[in-house]
Amino acid sequence: MKYLQLFVILVYSNILIGQQFVNPSNEWFADDCCYAVGETYCATYKYWFEGPVSINSVLYYELKSNNANQIFFEFAGFYREENGKVYKRSDENEEEFIVYDFNMIAGEQLEIGNANHSILIEVISVDSITLNSGEKRKRLEVAEASNHDTKTFWIEGIGSASAPMNPLFMFSLDCWNDFNCFHTESIVEYQVGSCQLTSSRNIDIAVNQISCYPNPATDKLLVSSINNDKINRLEILDLRGNTIFQSISQELAPVNVSGYPAGMYFAKVTFENGKIGVSKFVKAAN
Question: Mind listing the domains of the chain with CATH numbers?
Answer without folding.
Answer: 19-191 (no CATH), 210-283 (2.60.40.3080)
